[in-house]
Amino acid sequence: MIKGQTNRMDRLLLLLILLLCMSCPILAYAVPMVNDPNGFQSLVWGVALSTRPDLEVTRAGTHINEYQLKEGTPSYAGISVERVRFLSVDQQFARVTVHYQGEDRHKQIINYLERQFGSLDRVPGQMMRGLNQQYTWRGNDTEINVTYHANTERGFVFIDSRTLAPLFNDHITDSAE
């Protein structure tokens, strides 16, 4: 091949690679987490929730169990929420889910998470406005995901052990029953 044709082919290949990279959807961007909690409040990932006298089972399964606090109004970071659930997989604490309602609570929760785990400012892939908003903080041991639906003003916080939460997938049946 002639040197000019090789350079042209190299540029064309580079252009194709760039176009391919730009057209692929961005799968996951997360704020690097500051102060990874390695659990939730006083619970460390992996602890047996069944030994906690302050928790009661709300849904029992063969591998996955869901718990809630026996007493008190559900709250997260001092903010009143609809519910807080603690999940274990194979008797190991692996996830917390928080359900809340209202734009004011959403703003309070996001402000708390930013103060505790890092600012969301100018992070590619974060949806700061719109009908469906998504936020993610990722640490060495913990990942926090927030999803907020502005049209219904419903929000969800998922606080996961990065090593134990993937085990939930091992126990989902093909029919998801």
Please describe what this structure looks like.
- By secondary structure, the chain is an alpha+beta fold.
- It has one domain: 3-Layer(aba) Sandwich (Protein Transport Mog1p, Chain A), CATH 3.40.1000.
- 20% of the residues lie in helices and 34% in strands.
- It has helices at residues 3-23, 103-117; strands at 31-32, 39-40, 43-44, 55-59, 64-69, 75-76, 79-80, 83-89, 92-101, 132-138, 142-149, 154-161.
- The protein has an 8-stranded mixed sheet with strand order 1-10-11-12-9-8-5-4, with helices on one face.
- A hairpin with a 3-residue loop joins strand 10 (132-138) and strand 11 (142-149).
- The longest helix has 21 residues, at 3-23.
- The radius of gyration is 21 Å and the shape is globular.
- Mean pLDDT is 83; it is low at 13-28.
CATH class categorisation: Alpha Beta
Q: How does the overall form come out from the CA principal axes?
A: globular
Secondary-structure element order, N to C: HEEEEEEEEEHEEE
**Estimated share of beta-strand residues:** 25-35%
Percent range of helical residues:
10-25%
In this structure, how is the largest beta sheet organized?
A: 8 strands, mixed
